[in-house]
Amino acid sequence: GVEREAQAAVARGLGVRLAHGPLLAPGPDGKIRVPLPVADEQAATTMLGPRVQELLLPAVTLPVGARAEEAVAAFGHEPTITSVILVDEYQRPKGSLDRSRFLLSFAARYGHALHGSKPAQRLADPPRTVPRTTPAVAAMQAAGRDATRVYDDLVVTDELNRCLGIVRVSDLIRQIAAIRN
């Protein structure tokens, strides 16, 4: 039978739904007192992973009115840039240019002639934003909502929805894999 609260916690953790023993016997007043499970805050936090602000990378930003040629130049300066975030005057994200899709549309026949002097916003996707306090697991769920944009960078925002930086989905995958092992 169950004699101590630690035994009850282990049984509950193993999925045991029925138990008996001195710990669960009626008291002098005839009432049965069942110990409630204590949430292990640290274990829950560990399973959710670090917050996205810990994985933050600087975002390459351009004003929302920037021309597509400016975005091409931004991608051309640094080959490791995976996205350019279009922001308004308050640094709030208004669009996201994924490197592959953007440059592919530019490289298409007549792409430069069609898009070069036009606003980059025409080729932008809506930014996928997550608050800076979002756990890695929740950020992965947000990344997976749109099957066509699963690997697009997530834009990390503060309480006023201002762009703080980006988080790459590949970094989230690595962090979650490290937690699971």
Q: What is the CATH domain class of the largest domain?
A: Alpha Beta
Distance between the termini: 35 Å
Which regions have little confidence, pLDDT < 50, spanning 5+ residues? none
Structural class: alpha/beta
Q: Report the order of strands and helices.
A: HHEHEEHHEHEEH
Biggest beta sheet summary: 3 strands, mixed
Query: What is the fold named in CATH at topology level of the largest domain?
Result: CBS-domain
Q: Which word captures the global form?
A: elongated
Q: Which value, in Å, is the CA radius of gyration?
A: 25 Å
Mean pLDDT: 87
Count the E strands. Answer: 6
Mind telling me the CATH superfamily name of the largest domain? CBS-domain
Report what the structure shows.
By secondary structure, the protein is of the alpha/beta class. The protein has helices spanning 5-13, 41-48, 68-77, 99-107, 111-115, 136-143, 169-180; strands spanning 60-63, 83-87, 93-98, 129-131, 154-157, 163-167. Strands 1-2-3 form a three-stranded mixed beta sheet. It has a three-stranded mixed beta sheet with strand order 4-5-6. The chain is elongated and about 85 Å long. The mean pLDDT is 87.
Topology:
Layout lengths: L4 H9 L27 H8 L11 E4 L4 H10 L5 E5 L5 E6 H9 L3 H5 L13 E3 L4 H8 L10 E4 L5 E5 L1 H12 L1
Parallel strand pairs: 1-2, 4-5
Antiparallel strand pairs: 2-3, 5-6
Helix pairs in contact: 6-7
